[in-house]
Design a protein that fits this description.
With about 90 residues, this protein is mainly alpha-helical. The protein has two helices and no strands. Helix 1 runs antiparallel to helix 2. Keywords: Membrane, Transmembrane, Transmembrane helix.
């Protein structure tokens, strides 16, 4: 009789432990999918912010160098180098 109670307790413990382990794995997969979706939405936002930053810096620099021909040529060279290295490479 005592062994039967002990075996029942062990089976119940194993069942609860396995259920808890399965729930923990499910929660871990859910969090992983949430983070994947967050990252996948952040990537385009970061790319757009980079593009806006480059455009803003370029427009500010163009305002500064509008009068000076040498700086304008330097700016065009820098911009074409940036576009070539970041887009075509």
């Amino acid at each position: 009789m005592g062994c039967h109670k002990q075996c029942t307790f062990i089976h119940l413990y194993n069942f609860l432990w396995n259920t808890h382990d399965f729930q923990a794995q499910k929660n871990e997969r859910d969090m992983e999918s949430i983070w994947n979706s967050v990252i996948m939405t952040m990537i385009p936002l970061v790319m757009v912010l980079r593009l806006l930053t480059v455009t803003m810096v370029a427009s500010m620099y163009l305002e500064l160098v509008k009068e000076d021909n040498y700086l304008l040529k330097t700016f065009k060279l820098m911009l074409s180098n940036y576009v070539y290295t970041n887009i075509y490479s």
